[in-house]
Design a protein that fits this description.
This protein is α+β, with helices and mostly antiparallel strands and 508 residues long. The chain is built from 20 helices and 12 strands. Among the domains are: 141 residues, Tetratricopeptide repeat domain (Serine Threonine Protein Phosphatase 5, Tetratricopeptide repeat, Alpha Horseshoe); 191 residues, no CATH class. It starts with a helix and ends with a helix. 37% of the residues are buried. It binds S-adenosylmethionine (SAM). Pfam families: SET, TPR_8.
């Protein structure tokens, strides 16, 4: 049996000769049309298959408009076939039309009506592509909005395990800065705030020169927040507004729920993360009250797209702790946040949009004060946040305790102090929109820091190539110290980030 023109085309397609494949597919179409004066279902099905192949051939040649046109033709010939919708969706993605891509992927999924291996693969491909379209619809405007920062990277959805990932769009040389990212929200550590609130901008964490003008927070009633510019003051409004200006007694009153919350978290190892949760809840509440967002997710903006999951459930599966006990531990903190930032029925909830945010449970609590939401915020911070170190460039002297243990069984410990010279720096934790799309590798190809140029640091996260990175490669950094043992890395990655690393180094 002589092979059909379609089969011949397929042979050239497999060899990567797409031009020749296109030529043969087009001849094949003509042959079917010439042979079939009367259009019937069989010829239409054949035409749908061959035009779908034409679409993918043009796609391979990066001729996306033609790829789309042939995919749409293929759909016309057989609207019940699933694959042409996938082809059309893929072409729409390349043409930056994410809305139509989403629609076509959904139609592809809807049209899959068998359960064999090919159908399962197609379903998997279409589901991943649908996620990719949704993700791109959100991230592409951010990347394109700041080309100076982000024009060397792109974000793609990989699969249901690793989800989003960051890729190099161009070849990158070792040592080059690939991109840098400003935090969506940032929290200074308790110690850094105590030590530095007088010499930094509370929003951008820049050390302010003693001769420069300092802009104070509007609240004259004791708030220690200060800024280096009106812009920083304005930008901090969404998260600082409620914890300060609406509560003029806050700083003075130790009975205020916010003061109590801060006092409760002050000495726990994750204090900075728990303070960041407070800032996030403050921000969500502010945006809901001022009707700038319809619901918590919209209030979270960019952060909505960060990887989330319940941290307590993660921890209980890691160390066998009882989930309910863990949740009970957090309940007092949550109640304080609700007292401080809760929406009041009469004052704020006359609006249908906000009513939709109500928990259907008791007492008209809104979802933001449910333990599940709090847990998801903790998970989101755990999976995505990164520490920042901003240095002033100067050294300072601090007193550190020296503990001397006297002789004898019941001797008293005498605490003496000694002077230590340290680099004057501020520690914090931030959530970064693009940076947080980067996956982990135990063989990272980038290193991260807060240093833009020699010795000058800021709260901006700077991602530098550790090796040459070819265009199209995934950009990966290590979530833990790569020199740790396999077991140590495995434990950190699972307990903190919720995944089991499958790289060659970990599988040894
Ligand atoms: C900062 S996010 C990275 C972006 C993430 N892929 C997403 O879609 O948002 C961290 C999360 O990504 C996933 N992840 C990162 N690296 C991974 C890897 N090598 N293998 C499996 N999952 C990984 C884990 O779920 C982790 O908690």
């Amino acid at each position: 049996m002589t092979p059909s023109l379609k089969d011949l085309g397929n042979q050239f397609y497999t060899k990567g000769d797409y031009d020749k494949a296109i030529e043969l597919y087009k001849q094949g179409i003509q042959e079917i049309l010439d042979d079939n004066n009367i259009v019937n279902e069989d010829s239409n099905n054949q035409l749908s298959l061959i035009t779908s192949n034409l679409s993918i051939s043009y796609y391979q040649l990066k001729r996306y408009q033609e790829s789309l046109e042939w995919a749409l033709k293929s759909i016309e010939y057989n609207p019940k076939s699933a694959k042409p919708y996938l082809r059309a969706g893929d072409a729409y993605i390349e043409l930056s039309n994410y809305k139509d891509a989403k629609e076509k992927y959904l139609l592809c999924i809807k049209n899959i009506n068998t359960n064999d291996e090919t159908a399962k693969n197609l379903l998997n491909q279409a589901s991943n592509s649908l996620q990719n379209a949704k993700m791109k619809q959100f991230y592409q405007p951010i990347l394109e909005g700041s080309p100076a920062l982000y024009d060397r990277v792109e974000i793609k959805y990989l699969d249901s395990i690793r989800e989003k990932a960051l890729f190099a769009k161009v070849p990158i040389q070792k040592g080059e800065i690939i991109f840098s990212d400003l935090p969506f929200i940032h929290q200074l550590s308790v110690d850094s705030f105590k030590l530095h609130h007088n010499d930094i901008c509370n929003h951008c964490i820049k050390f302010i020169d003693s001769s420069a003008a300092i802009i104070k927070c509007n609240n004259t009633n004791g708030c220690k927040y200060q800024y280096c510019s009106e812009k920083c003051k304005l930008e901090s409004f969404s998260y600082h507004n409620q914890s300060c200006m609406n509560n003029s007694d806050l700083v003075l009153s130790s009975n205020h729920p916010i003061s109590k919350y801060r006092a409760m978290v002050e000495n726990v190892p994750t204090s900075t993360q728990l303070l960041l949760v407070e800032s996030l809840i403050s921000m969500i509440s502010h945006l809901l009250k001022t009707k700038q967002a319809k619901n918590c997710n919209l209030a979270l903006g960019t952060i909505t797209h960060l990887k989330r999951g319940p941290l307590m459930a993660q921890q209980s599966s890691f160390n066998g702790k009882n989930l309910e006990d863990l949740q009970k531990q957090y309940q007092p903190l949550l109640s304080l946040l609700e007292d401080a930032y809760g929406l009041k029925l009469k004052e704020h909830l006359d609006d249908q949009l906000l009513k939709n945010e109500f928990k259907k449970y008791t007492n008209f609590k809104i979802i933001v004060f449910s333990v599940d939401f709090y847990d998801n915020l903790l998970g989101m911070i755990n999976f995505n946040s990164t520490s920042t170190v901003v240095k002033s460039g100067k050294k300072i002297e601090i007193q550190v305790p020296v503990t001397t243990t006297g002789k004898g069984k019941k001797s008293n410990n005498q605490v003496k102090t000694t002077t230590k010279t340290i680099e004057n720096s501020c520690w914090g934790v931030g959530l970064f929109p693009i940076f947080s799309c980067m996956n982990h590798s135990c063989f990272p190809n980038v290193e991260i820091s807060n240093e833009i140029i020699d010795g000058v640091t800021s709260v901006r996260m700077v991602v530098k190539a550790k090796k040459n990175i070819p265009a199209g490669s995934e950009i990966l950094h290590s979530y833990c110290d790569e020199t740790l043992s396999n077991k140590e890395r495995k434990d950190i990655l699972f307990s903190q980030y919720g995944f089991k690393c499958t790289c060659n180094k970990c599988s040894k």
